Amino acid sequence: MRMIGIGAALTVLLTAAPVAAVEPEAFLERLRAAYELMGYDFAFGPARAEGDAIIVDGASVAITQPEGMLGPVDLDVELRFSGVAEREDGTYTADALTIDELGFSHDGEDGIFAVLVEGIRMSDFYLPAGEPTAASSMMLFSDLETGPLSFTHDGTEVLRIGAITADSVFNPPPGEGELIDLSSRLAFEEVTIRTGPGKGAKATRAILGASEVNGAIEGTITWSMAEGRVALDPLTISFDGQGALELAFTFDGMTPEVLQTIYDAERQMSHMMSKGKTQSASELQVKVGFELLEKLQLVGAHVRYDDAGLTPRLLAYSAVHEGQESDAYAESLIGRAEELLANARAPELTQSIIGEVRRFVGDPRSLEVAVAPAAPLKLITAVSGAVNPAGLANMLNLSVTANGSAQTGDDAVR
C-alpha cells in the first residue's frame, strides 16, 4: 500500500498562491511526519533555502516493520525540492523533488551487488497542516519518473530498466475536498535481464534461449474510498520470446480507516519490539490480522500465463537434468500435481484441474487460474473454509483453464 500514495496536485498549486517563504526545517519536519505514518523513519542532513527551493545535503532512512526497524540506510545525495510554498491554511506544497543519481552497494557472500538509479524526479508534493492521516498519505506526491536503473553483480550488469514511471489521478484533486477515489499507474520500461556471472548462468541461458531477454512491467491500481474497493487491473509482466504473466484482483473493505489501523499497528509493534515486548507485539499482530480478515472481502482475482517459448525450453532442460525423455518427464510432472491435489478430497475438481494441466503441458499456450465468488467473500470466511478444500473451491468458484482466450476488463476479476 505504500506505493499507492501518489496523486495530482497541479490544479491546487496553480490556484493557491504562497503566503510566505518556507523555513527548510519546518517543511522537512512535515515531510518526515508524513512518511513516519507510513512506516518510514527519515533523518535529513543540513538544509538551506535558495529562493523557493530547499536543498538538503544527504539523508538516512529506516523502515518500521513488525519485527522492529530495518536500517537505517545512509543516502549520500543532494535532495532538491523546487517551488516550495505555504498556503494560507498551513498546507505545504512543492513542485518537485529531484535527485541526480542514487546508488547502493552490498558486499555479501555471493559477491558485490550494486544498484544505481539516475535522474529521479517526484512531482506535486502536498503536505496538509495538522496530523498526517492515511487519506493524506495517499496524496503525498503525484508523479514519479526516473532515468535508467542498473543492477550489477560483481561489476557485471544483470538487470537494466530504461525508465520507471508512476502517476496518479485524484478525485477531487488534493485540497479540494475529501478524497473519493484515485487511480495509479506504474510502469517499468525497457527491462533487460542478462544471465550474468555465477554457476547458474549456463542453465539460465539454456532455459531462456538467450543470454539476455527484454520486456516490460506495467500495472494500474484503482481505489474507491467509500466501500474501500481496491482493484489491480491488471499487473502485466512480459518478456519477448518468453511469455507474459498477468495478475488481477479486486477487494472491498480497504477504507482509509482500515489503512490507518494498519499504520498505527505497525508503529505500536515496532515500539513494543524496541522495548523487548516480543510477546505483546506478536499478540497485536495476530489481533490486527484477524481484524483485516474480517473486514476485507474478495470480489475476484485471476492469474494468467501466456507462453511465448519459455515453457518448452524449461521442460526440455528439466527433462535432461532429470535424465528422462521429454514425454516421460511431462507425465511425471502431471503425476506430482495429481498427488498434491489428492489431499483436497475433491475427485471431480482434481480431475478437472489435472485435465487442464495436461492440456497445457502437451501444448503450452496459456494457463489461467481464477476465482469469482457469487458475492464479495470475507477473507475470514475463506480462511475458515480451508479445512474443506472442495467446499472452499465451490465457494470461490475456482476455475483452471488451459489454452483459453484472455479475459479483459471486469470479466477478469468476476
Overview of the molecule:
With 414 residues, this protein is α+β, with helices and mostly antiparallel strands. The protein is 31% helix and 41% strand. It contains 11 helices and 18 strands. The protein has helices spanning 10-15, 24-37, 134-137, 201-208, 256-274, 278-295, 310-322, 326-342, 347-362, 379-384, 389-396; strands spanning 40-44, 47-50, 53-65, 68-82, 85-86, 92-108, 111-127, 143-145, 149-153, 156-171, 181-194, 212-224, 229-239, 243-252, 297-307, 366-371, 377-378, 399-402. The protein has an 18-stranded antiparallel beta sheet that branches. A hairpin with a 2-residue loop joins strand 2 and strand 3 (53-65). The protein is globular, with a radius of gyration of 25 Å. The model is unreliable at 1-19 (pLDDT under 50).
Unreliably modeled segments: 1-19
**Secondary-structure element string:** HHEEEEEEEHEEEEHEEEHHEHHHEEHHE
Query: How would you state the average pLDDT, rounded?
Result: 89
Structural class: alpha+beta
| Approximate helicity band | 25-40%
The proportion of residues in beta strands is 35-45%
Which geometry do the CA atoms define? globular
Largest sheet: 18 strands, antiparallel
What is the CA-based Rg, rounded? 25 Å
CA(first)-CA(last) distance: 23 Å
* Count of discrete alpha- or pi-helical segments spanning 4 or more residues: 11
Number of DSSP strands? 18
